[in-house]
Amino acid sequence: MRTAGPFSPIALALLLAAALAPPAWGQFAPPETVEGAPIYTVLPVDAIPAIDDPRFVPAEEAAAFMKENEPVLGVTGGGIAKAFSLWLLNVHEIVNDEIGGTPVAVTW
Question: Where do the structural domains in the chain lie, given as residue ranges?
Answer without folding.
Answer: 9-107
